[in-house]
Amino acid sequence: MSDFDWINDIKPHYRFEHLEFGPHPISVNMRKEFEQNVPPNRIINSMLDWEWAKMHFKNDHWISVVMGTHMSNKEMGIYEVFSSILEEPVSMNVDEINQHMFDLQK
């Protein structure tokens, strides 16, 4: 046993890096629209790269994080975040998301 094994027992422990991003449902639907020969436009093009992660915690709280050119500024590390304790989506950076995830897991 090392001097730092106690760190593994600290709860909560999920952070931004534990989120698993995949295609956002809106992006998937927009791609289907393109397949049906719908003329592309600027709004639709900006939705094609949305990625989404959602995580549920043991205490019934959850977080949803979206990144993409229209929703967030991925290059600057800004994401759109919604959760079980927010009334509306807000923009957050990774540190703010980590803190918010910590608060959700208390």
Structural commentary:
- By secondary structure, the protein is an alpha+beta fold.
- 27% of the residues lie in helices and 23% in strands.
- It has three helices and five strands; from the N terminus they run βααββββα.
- It has helices at residues 25-35, 42-47, 94-105; strands at 22-23, 51-56, 62-67, 78-83, 90-93.
- It has a five-stranded antiparallel β-sheet.
- A hairpin with a 6-residue loop joins strand 4 (78-83) and strand 5.
- The chain is elongated and about 60 Å long.
- The mean pLDDT is 79.
Task: Quickly list its features.
106 residues, 5 strands, 3 helices, alpha+beta, single chain, 5-stranded antiparallel beta sheet, 27% helix
Structural topology:
Blueprint: E1 22-23, H1 25-35, H2 42-47, E2 51-56, E3 62-67, E4 78-83, E5 90-93, H3 94-105
Antiparallel strand pairs: 1-2, 2-3, 3-4, 4-5
Helix content: 25-40%
Q: What's the gyration radius in Å?
A: 17 Å
End-to-end Cα distance? 27 Å
Mean pLDDT: 79
Shape: elongated
- Write down how many β-strands occur, each being a DSSP E stretch of 2 or more residues: 5
Our estimate of the beta-strand percent is 15-25%
Write a compact overview of the structure shown:
The protein has 106 residues and is of the alpha+beta class.
